[in-house]
Amino acid sequence: MKFDIITIFPEMFDSYVNESILKRAQEKKLISIKAHNLRQYTKDKHRKVDDRPYGGGAGMVMMVQPIADAVRTLQVTRYKLHARRGGKLKSRVILFSTRGKKFTNKDATRLAKYDQLIFICGRYEGVDERVAEYIADEEISIGDYVLTGGELPAMVVIDSVARQIKGVLGSAESLEEHQGSYPTYTRPEKFMYRVARSAKHGKKKMLRATGYKLRVLRVPGVLKSGNHAHIDAWRQSHQ
After folding, report:
1. Are strands 138-141 and 32-37 parallel, antiparallel or unpaired?
2. Distance from C-alpha of 123 to C-alpha of 148, rounded to nearest angstrom
3. What is the rounded CA–CA span in Å between residue 83 and residue 74?
C-alpha cells in the first residue's frame, strides 16, 4: 500500500508516521507513506498555490492546476513501478472536505484493498471545485466539525487503513473489530486510588480540595476465574 499525501505542510507528518506501528510497517515494507509538497507542482514563479475566489468572498482558494499536476505525476510514477512488476495499479484519489462522506471502519476496510491512496489536503477557504468534480474519486469527512486543513484527517485515515493491511498489527486478532470492544484490565489486581474531597467555596461555588479518601479499584472477579465460557459471556455482555 502506497500512501501519497499532497499538502503544503509535508513536515506535519514526519513525527506521526515515523513512530510505533506505522514506523515498523514501513520498515517491513508493508506500507509506504510519503508527503509531497504541493508547491513543487505550481507553475507560479513565487510557488503560489492559492488565489482569490471568483465572485468575491473572504479568504483564498487552493488552485486546481498544482493539485491536478501533483495527482497525475504521483499516479504515473506508481503505474510505471507496477507495470515493471507485471501488475495493474489500483489507485484512489481522496479529497478531505466538510461535505464529504463520513469516514467509517467499513471505508477503512474498503480502501485497504487499493495499491495506492492519494490524499488531497485542503487549506484556506477550500479547494477549487473542479478538484472535487474531476480529479478526486471521492470526498471524505472524519466528523461533523471543521478543521484548519486536511492533514489531521489524512493521518486518521492512514492509521485506520494501515491497520487493516495484513502483517501491520502482527495478527488479525489484534483488530478490535474482530475481537469486539470490551473492557480490558491488567496488573495490579487491586489499585488504591486517592480521590480528592471537595467543597463549595464562596459565592462563585468554586471547588477546593478538603482532603482525600481512598478507593479500592479492583479487576472483575470473573476475569480471574479461569472459566473461559464465563469470561466470554462477560465480555459479550459488556460490548
Report:
1. unpaired
2. 6
3. 14
pLDDT tens, position by position, 77-100: 888 877 777 778 899 999 999 999
Instruction: Read off the pTM.
Output: 0.86
- Letter string b/e over residues 178-188, b meaning 16 or more CB atoms within 10 A of that residue's CB: eeeeeeeeeee
- Burial zone of 134 (CB within 10 Å; 0-12 exposed, 13-18 middle, 19+ buried): exposed
Does an H or E element contain 61, and which? strand 61-62
The runs of H, that is alpha helices, within the chain are 14-17, 20-27, 64-84, 105-111, 129-130, 151-162, 176-179, 228-237
Amino acid (one-letter) located at 222: V
Supply 138's cell numbers.
471521492
Residue listed under C-alpha cell 479487576:
219
Q: Is 156 helix (H, G, I), strand (E, B) or coil?
A: helix
Higher pLDDT, 21 or 201: 21
Q: List Cβ neighbours of 182 (8 Å cut-off, separation of 6 or more).
A: 235, 236, 238, 239
How does DSSP classify residue 131? I
pLDDT tens-digit map of 130-180: 999 999 999 999 999 999 999 999 999 999 999 999 999 976 655 656 556
C-alpha torsion angle, residues 18, 19, 21, 24 (rounded to 10): 60
- Tell me the residue ranges of DSSP E strands in 71-229: 91-102, 116-120, 138-141, 190-201, 206-218
Q: Whose CA is closest to 98, among 126, 56, 136? A: 126
Query: Domains in the chain, start-ordered, CATH in brackets?
Result: 2-178 (3.40.1280.10), 190-237 (no CATH)
